[in-house]
Write a structure and sequence with these properties.
With 157 residues, the chain is mainly β. The chain is built from two helices and eight strands, in the order H-E-H-E-E-E-E-E-E-E. The chain is 15% helix and 38% strand.
Length: 157
């Protein structure tokens, strides 16, 4: 993958994730390992036969087995980047990447699942989470799937 010369972490991380998808689309999974930590934390929600990104990153996937074409890539703060994509009315995915110092340390994949991301602000011990300290920072936008019934999850940051 090419060098990315951007100083702001939010912009740099968004560019790294964008380059990751371009590299995967070209079939060059070998260069992807350079931006993943060796102890990558992985989490998946969806049908068991849809671990497409894991198979791509580990080199188990056949060429063109599944093609990830993000419809949007959004940076949330200095460490989180969310990519979203869909193909027709049957395939919808969201990837949540966590980056530190230019490396991907955590990856969450949601396949055929609506996702809402909320930022929780710390509260004093003993106080409950409320609307005042919890704000939505990202929400699924699957334009072709709005009438489809899918499970929904909330990710708290």
């Amino acid at each position: 993958m090419g060098e990315i010369n951007v100083t702001e972490p939010k912009v740099q991380n968004q560019a790294i994730v964008h380059a990751l998808y371009k590299t995967l689309a070209s079939g060059d999974t070998k260069h992807v390992t350079g931006i993943l930590t060796t102890d990558l934390e992985w989490w998946f929600h969806g049908p068991l036969n849809c671990h497409h990104m894991m198979r791509m990153l580990t080199g188990e996937a056949l060429p063109n087995e599944f093609k990830f074409e993000p419809r949007s890539i959004t940076a949330i703060g200095d460490e989180i980047v969310i990519a979203e994509g869909y193909e027709g009315a049957h395939v919808y995915w969201v990837h949540v990447w966590t980056l530190k110092e230019g490396l991907i340390t955590r990856f969450r994949e949601y396949f055929n699942t609506w996702l809402t991301v909320k930022e929780l602000k710390p509260k004093p011990v003993g106080q409950w989470v409320s609307k005042e300290n919890c704000s939505t920072v990202w929400r699924s936008q699957p334009r072709d799937l709005f009438r489809r019934s899918l499970p929904g999850l909330m990710l708290a940051l």
